[in-house]
User: Fold this.
Amino acid sequence: MSKNIQAIRGMHDLLPTHSPLWQRLEDGAREVLEGYGYQEIRTPLVEVTELFKRSIGEVTDIVEKEMYSFTDRNGDSLSLRPEGTASCVRAAIEHGLLAQPQRLWYRGPMFRHERPQRGRYRQFHQIGVEVFGLDGPDIDLEVILLTRRLWRALGIDGLRLEINTLGDAPERAAYRDALTAYLGRHLDQLDEDSRKRLHTNPLRILDSKDPRTQAVVADAPRLIDHLGGTSRDHFAALCAGLDEAGLDYEQNPRLVRGLDYYNRTVFEWTTDDLGAQGTVCAGGRYDGLVEQLGGRATPAVGFALGVERAVALLEQRDDPAAPSLDAYLVAVGDAAQARAIQIAEDLRDALPGMRLMCHCGGGSFKSQFKKADRSGAQLALVLGEAELAQGLIGVKPLRGTGEQETIAIRDLPKRLKRLD
Ligand code: ATP
Ligand code: MG
Assistant:
């Protein structure tokens, strides 16, 4: 016997039992984003590989080992997008969006060939924001406050905000030298990954989970001590704004982020409720990226929220009840069945927004009522041959008490309006 084909490891179906939670998250996010004047952008899932190499960085985990890359029929190297920022920048340059400030948002699947585990998948989803053309700490503040409003709107509590500043490129380069020199003196205490990163991506070592490496890192030179006045002022203004907004945060000097393009502000929202994969949302400023990808120098800031992780939090806090049906139309007998779909269409015309399911496929009253009951509908509408002949239809409450009544079909909209 042939084996059934299954979904690819780390790539999941979203089943109807769970889609209400996703919809709540997506609808809630969209409302909040629109409330700040952000506009949606959609870009292709596939881009030339070069785009990600040039933006995310050649020596990052993503580009070194996580991309789904393949050769197109014409020989081009293409990749499934591992994140959204590079594509947004590409699109903004390509369509000349950068002449004025832009507040954009996107959502959709991302692809990374990581080891699948709880909260870490090979196809996962992000909702993200990218703001172009604004360089002050005010927009960094807005973006972070927007995320707070999102947690509030969704009823997600218990998230912690960590922030840090990475300074600007020359400051970071000076710091990198100091850090490399320090870590080089403690080479024997570093884990293997960190040793490899010493000359390619030493800042990432700050982020190591290895206890011995962490002990070395604790006494490492601090980036904040290598910042110039402008970077310090920017960060101080952001902190002051967060204080004024009453938003608690932790300043974490080891927060560096895995992508190369960040500068100045970086932040993460984390939780203890999801085990090891506790970062739900992460972002920061990336002032150099637009120019690096061939556009005119444009400051930028953004974040991406991991939808699976946010949905997992929603699920812990709430049961994912599907929006239930208002009515289920039962029809028995050939003539009634033939009319049922039409009657349902007329009802939908008369009562926009009504959730009505029309029984299809025939069967006895008994079997159709069973389905009506299981559908979760409030009411069954009952169409039999005899009723139809007189232009009548039964209305039977399925929840609680209440008697079945028989009314004229043309009075249905009036009768059902009383439902809400
Ligand atoms: P992590 O440290 O968890 O690997 P990251 O730094 O690689 O995260 P980003 O690229 O900044 O993550 O992505 C932003 C958010 O997207 C993360 O905070 C997380 O919520 C989510 N995310 C990233 N990778 C995955 C994945 N493989 N599966 C599910 N969610 C993910
Ligand atoms: Mg990662």
